[in-house]
Amino acid sequence: MLTSLRRIVLEFSQAPELESALLRMVGQIKKAMKTDCCSVHIADYTNQHFLLMASDGLSIDSLGQTSVAFTEGLIGLVGQREEPINIANPQEHPHYIHAPEVQEDEFNAFLGTPIIHQRKVLGIISIQQKNARHFTEDEEAFLVTLSAQLATSLANAEARGKLGLAKEEQWLKQLSGIAGAPGIAFGNILVCSQSANLASISLQKTEDIAHQLTRFELSVDKTRADFSNMAKKLSQLISDDSVDVFEVYQQLLNHANLGQEVSESIKNGWQAESALKIVIDNYVMQFEALDDAYIRERASDIRDLGNRLLLNLQQQGTKSNVLPKEFILMADDVTASVLAEYQHQGLKGILSLSGSNNSHAAILARALDIPAIMGIGKIPLSQLDQEQVIIDGYSGELFIAPNDALIREYKHLIIEETLLADKVKKVEKLPSVTKDGRTIELLLNAGLSTGFEHSKHAGAVGIGLYRTEIPFMNRSCFPSEQEQTKLYRQVLSAFPKQAVTMRTLDVGGDKSLPYFPIVEDNPFLGWRGIRITLDHPEIFLLQIRAMIKANLSHNNLEIMLPMISSVSEVDDATRLINQAFYELKAELQAKNKRSEPLTGSEKILKPKIGIMIEVPSTIFQLKELASRVDFFSVGSNDLTQYLLAVDRNNARVANLYDAYHPAVLRALNTIAEESSKYLVPLSLCGELAGEPAGALLLLAMGYDKLSMNPHNVGRIKWVIRHVDFQRTKVLLAHVLTFSTAKQVHCYLNEQLEQLGLGGFVRAGM
Ligand code: PEP
Ligand code: MG
Question: By the 8 A CB rule, do 748 and 728 touch?
Fold first, then answer.
């Protein structure tokens, strides 16, 4: 049963065209379940009905013609209840509707299950039988499992359908994702393929057979060369049989085997990538169904070979070093390092199929002021390459091949955005003070990309968070003490008279170093931030030494420790910082004795040490922590993720990730109250600080400083200068009484509009 289930799901997900795939699938289900009829109804939300799309058992003439309203019949009941309905003698059921055109009178048993994707009913699969009986629990479980597995494929097929229409009809088409970075962008998509995965390919036909054959042959030649090189390199290191695997791959590539089959498939009209997928999936399926464990294992070899061939197919003709003058970057997973690689003045927008609005890539996009949409979902990337699009980074909407009217409308919104930006610019140099005289310091978040952010102060009075990990990322090994010192000196000198808070290395989670890979099932709950650096004092000490050395001439450094979850971590880190400090001091004194005196400004001073409050455990130990450190800075991005147990990177749960969740807001308020009680200076450097509503709430809570990306400093300053502190207190008092995030959002949006600040959170003034 399991094998048939997998086969049915696999074949459905591979099919290029929905209608024929559904028809084939109902036949397969009917056969596998030994029943008399299987049908699929698809939900049509515009017309509020389920349309009978495929059936093996009902009248062929009714396919695509007969529909049943969402509130009617047994099919409607399955959809409404969102659970299976399993009944004998369905005609006697009060919801049964007699529909002579479908010819179902002879069936006396009915089992229907909903196909649900992300809480939305996409359709209903039903089976019927002549015998009057209840279907067994096993049969019900089979159909439920099948529906659950088909849901994603069906949702993807819908998205593909949208794309197809967009291309063929040159019509307005729209996809939605998660609003990653605000703003509007126009341009043509540049697809960046990071690694090839046959599973993400959706099948496409083509008429261009000769060209596809040539592409495939080139990919085979390149793959052969890759394998020879790999085998040669490996045989210099090891001398066992592992190297033979490349010989096996080479043989598989021979025309008599797999290569021949792919060529045949191309000749049948499939695009090269599609042909490769069909052949490889078929082999994998056959191998995996066999009893012999050794042969089953070979399925992964075949998949590996397939993905390598695919990579070489996809990379043909791409010249990653020559970027177009202007482009919208699109990839399966736009990460911070992909962004670092594609940082270029022509980069106008960012589209990522995965990720969420607090992924580091989204944070970086906001820092760069580049509109971004994250978590668009599985759609065939290759189909969108070069496509003209509009990105609405406020709402997360993507318009493909937009029509003239839409282009006109968005151009108008861009003009309004520019007007607002001009107004904001005017307050850039003014103090950040409310109408009734309350001051809050605005600082910069810097470091997510190399070099450009602190070049413009944007009206900030210091750096509240300098993320040190990016300079560690774009390299092939850890940077030396000297290299780090040079870089940190540049950062400290950007604000010579104001505090610069440098955070020690916070890798792990969604930030990895190419030369220090960490593979974990739960990276955000694993080896991350201070946990890594305390386990590797040699890395930590080197970084601290570099920071202190860089600080010799400016004395404006503050050191901040990320991912603190217990008091002992603070003690251990402080001990190491002290060690680095006293060693350096001794070294400098020795240098001094050798009559190499320090210059007047070169004085070694111990920097202030603070911690990030981003792991919930710290909220319950603020008193102990307060006695150990000089300041707290709340990392609301991680605090939200850990408090709500929602991966900040996972598009599937993005709707649950919300810094305005009452629990998060109450936690932030408690932190402010406690910090004030223990007299510890408090700032917040998560994304919430750069959001108008967030900044108003934090101001009311009593935060001393807010740290944000340069693009937001002016906007938040404008917001602060146009409110009364007393009004924000009222706002906060109201918000703290709400029990759901939805209530909080509705209230805050309404208040922002009333305050005339709506233009900061949506397109248009
Ligand atoms: C945070 O967690 O809020 C934070 C500022 O750090 P990062 O986003 O780099 O994890
Ligand atoms: Mg963090």
Answer: no
